[in-house]
Design a protein that fits this description.
alpha/beta, eight-stranded parallel beta barrel, 32% helix, 24% strand
Amino acid sequence: MNIIPVLDLMNGQVVHAKHGDRLNYLPIQSTLCSSSQPLAIVDAFLELYPFKQLYIADINAIQKNGDHRNIISSITLAFPNLEIYLDAGFSSTEDINIFNKIKVTPVLGSESITTIDDYRAITKEHKKRMLLSLDFKNDVYQGPPALLQDSKYWQNELILMSLSKVGSQSGPDLEKLKHLKKMSPQTKIYAAGGVRDLGDLNTLKSENIDGALIASAIHNGNLSQSDLIKAQA
């Protein structure tokens, strides 16, 4: 079980994502540190556990309202061994090219992709490793139907992003996760949204889910260092 901490960036600071209601995200309040500054939060994550990846959601970029290139670049320079998964609302090859000088692994969020042809164009032009995120809000899929219905479009790793469960402490969307794993057993499936504690992680492991993207349960202390060690053993 690969645990990937999440950094939601909005207006220059780390915010607490809740239910996908991006207009009302507030600066993070964490048990790990007293700051909402990105570098301080990443440093606190790594003090807690030697994570190998970090997932960054650039909320401004997703909403087409600026981006955090400078901050993300500073994170890659300060933590060169940390792989950055970045969702910056990529909807075209031009969007990805904006981040070409920064060492990141692009995450293609289905909510940002208008047509399957746009997705094909991105994946054809950019041969480097990418992840696809299948995005749901209020239990409704957001994106081109073909991406959800046909696993031939999936990359080797796939995120199920349950936006309404993010920050909800309501548990992961097990039924959808199991369905995706059944569609493509060889694909690594990551749960995003709703994970509360070690019990949820153990449940995901029992269903052969490969990893989880987590923010709230780390910041509120529900997942301790010993829990993270047990989950990733």
